[in-house]
Amino acid sequence: MTRPATLENLPLYFSSNVKSTFKVVITNSPLGGRGLFARERINKGSLIFTNEPTVYGPRANCEVKKICSNCFHISDLCYPCGKCYAYVCSDICNGSSDHIKLCSFICNNWRLKNNWDKIEKTPLVLARMIIYVQFLLLSEKQRDLLGLFQRSQIKDTFEELNKLQCIYYLPEQHVEFLNIVESIIKINSFRISHSLIGNKIELRGLYPLSSFMNHSCIPNTRNVFTSNYLMTVFATKDIEKGDEITSCYTGLLWCSPARRYQLYKSKNFWCFCTRCNDNTEMGTKLSALKCFNKPCIGNLLPKNPLDLQTKWFCNSCKIFVPYTKINMIQSVLGSLVGTLRLDDEIRLENNILQRLTIFIPYSNHVFVDIRLRLAIKLGFTDDVNIKELSESRLELKESLCRGTLRTVAALGAGDAHLRGLLLYHLHAALAERARRSPDQYEELKSEIEITIEQAYNILQGDISAPPDLELRRQYLGPGCDKPQEERFFILDSPDKVTNTL
Ligand SMILES: C[S@@+](CC[C@H](N)C(=O)[O-])C[C@H]1O[C@@H](n2cnc3c(N)ncnc32)[C@H](O)[C@@H]1O
C-alpha cells in the first residue's frame, strides 16, 4: 500500500456521496496525526459534511446467530446461500447484486476445507466477517489508498479470521490484507446507532471523511445516521474558521478515568483535553468519590487528573488518599454496578444502591448513568407506557431529565445527541402532565413546544430517533393551530394519527 502525496480528494475515492467537504480541510493536528479543520465559520446546528460508508457490517464479535449477510436483519428465516453458504433472509437478498458479487468472490477465491461442517458453522462465521470481505471487494485504487488511514498498533489475536481459516484455504495475501484491515477498522470505524425497529443488528462502518475527525471529550459535532447509513455531521456549537472539528469516541457522561483508559486501550492515545485536565470535569464531579474520613461530607478528587498515579484529595477536610486505594474502591464500584441489571430493568436493587452511596456522591457518573437510563425508560417500556405511569414516577421522569440536561450543559456539550434525547423525554413527561390536567396546559405550553422543537432539530433524520418525534412536533410543537383537545390526540392514539396523515 502506497501513501499518495495529498489527502484532499481521498474521501471522494471511497464514496460517491461526500457533500459539503468544502467546509473542512484535512491537515496536521496538534492533537495527533491529521485532523479535520473548519475552512470557514460554521454555525451551531449547521450540516458540516455527509459521507457514506465505504464498507459496513456487524461487529466481528457480535452475539447474534442468524444475520442476513445482505440486509443485516436478524431473522430465523435466514438460510445459507446454496453456493457460498452466507446467510440470506429472502430470495430478494439472495438475488441482490451485492450478494451476487460477494458470492462469486467467495466461490472464486476461497476453497472450503473438507472437514468443515459447511451448513452449520460457515454462515455464521461469514456473517461476522462481511465487513472484511467488503474490503476485499474494493477497487485496486481504493485498496491502495487504505494506506492513508491510521492503523492500530495493538496486535490482538484476530479470532474471527482464525475461524474463517478453519473453514477455507485463504490465499496468503488475503490473510495479510485482512489483518491490515482489522487494524484500520479498530481505529477508524464508527458505530452506527439505530433503533431496534426492523430487527437489525448493531453495525459499524468505515466513513472516509469522518475517519479524520480526532477525539475531544467535549466535541463540537454530533453524528446523524440516516436509514441508508449515510453519516451526516452537524455542529453542536459555533465553530470558528480554523478550529478543529472533533467527535467524542466514548460515552459523553463517562468519568475521566474511564474515558481516558478506554481511549488508550481502543485507540492507542491518552487524552489531554480541557475536561480531562480539570479534576471537577467542568464542575460536574463525575469522577468524585465520597471522603473516607467520616463524618467529613467532602468529595475526593484527583490532584492531577492527567497522572494515573496521582494522589486524590478531599475538597473539604484536605486529606490525601493514594491512587492504590482509589483503584481498589473503583474496582469494588465496578463489580457492584455490574450486578445492577441496567439494560432491561427499571427496578433497581435498593441494597446495591445503598452500598453505592457509601462510596460515591450523587454527582458520580455511576448515579448519572442510572438517572439517565431511568429518565429514558420511565414510561417507554413494553410493560408501562407513559400514560400508565403513576404521578410520582412521572414527576421523577421530569426531574431526572432536567438533572441530566444540567450535567450535559455543564460539560459544554452544546446540542449533543444526548441533549436531543433528554429534551424529547422531558417533552413527553410535560405533555403527559398537561394531558392529565388540561388546566395546566397554558402554563406548560411554551416548554412543551420548545422542548419538542429543540429535540426535533437535534434528532431529525437519525435512525435512532424516537418514532413519534415528527408527529409530536407537528401536534405539540410551536405553530400548531389545532385546538388544545386535538393536540393531545396524538398522545391518545399515535397509531390512528399515523394512519390519518
Ligand atoms: C480516527 S483517527 C483520527 C485521525 C487521525 N489523527 C489520523 O491522522 O488519521 C483516530 C486516531 O487519531 C489519534 N487521535 C484522535 N484524537 C486524538 C486526541 N484527542 N489526542 C491524541 N490523539 C488523537 C489517535 O492516534 C487515534 O487512534
Automatic annotation (TrEMBL):
It comes from the Eukaryota. GO terms for molecular function: N-methyltransferase activity; protein methyltransferase activity; S-adenosylmethionine-dependent methyltransferase activity. Residues 22-250 form the SET domain. Coiled coil: none annotated. It holds the Pfam family SET. This is SET domain-containing protein SmydA-8-like isoform X2. It comes from Vanessa tameamea (Kamehameha butterfly).
